[in-house]
Amino acid sequence: MKKALFLLIGAVLLFGFQPGDRLDDETMRALGIRDKGVYVIDFFASWCHSCEKELPLLNTLKNARIIGVDVDENVEDGRRFVKELGLGFDVIEDPEGAIVSRFDPAGIPAIYIIKDGKVAGTIIGARPDIDRAIASALERLR
Q1: CATH code, domain with 36
Q2: Number of domains in the chain
């Protein structure tokens, strides 16, 4: 049984979370997810030009708790970026890549929609209509 558990955990860490996967307790704690519900997790960085355009659009979203994960290695760069954009949602600093490595997205920006602890959908890469794309995905979850 222990061997199967280690193989499962290793597969998640090797391939990252995919739609349908349940987040492990450690990842839930790191993201501050404590209850059932819908969360939008957005991995971003100050050097990402698309992130600069997309992040303010997330401020308009309803029906989900938004959690930003700043993957900047330089924490001060990330803090300055968040302040300049005036983000109205929680942002977690991940300079060591401990959280983003668990998800292992193909690129940045990367959005993961979590419902009741499971990955319900992903949006990887830049989209000029990210707010509408997420709102549509959230509506489908109802």
Answers
A1: 3.40.30.10
A2: 1
- Gyration radius of the chain over CA positions: 15
CB 134 within 8 A of CB 58: yes
Torsion angle of the four alpha carbons 38, 105, 15, 72, in this order, in degrees rounded to the nearest 10: -100
Residue 120: both structure tokens together: 């319900």
* Backbone dihedral region for residue 105 (phi beyond 0: left; psi -120 to 50: alpha; all else: beta): beta
Contact at 8 Å (CB) between 72 and 95?
yes
The tens-digit pLDDT sequence of the chain (142 residues) is 444 333 334 444 456 899 999 999 999 999 999 878 999 999 999 999 999 999 999 998 988 999 999 999 999 999 999 999 999 999 999 999 999 999 999 999 999 999 999 999 999 999 999 999 999 999 998 8
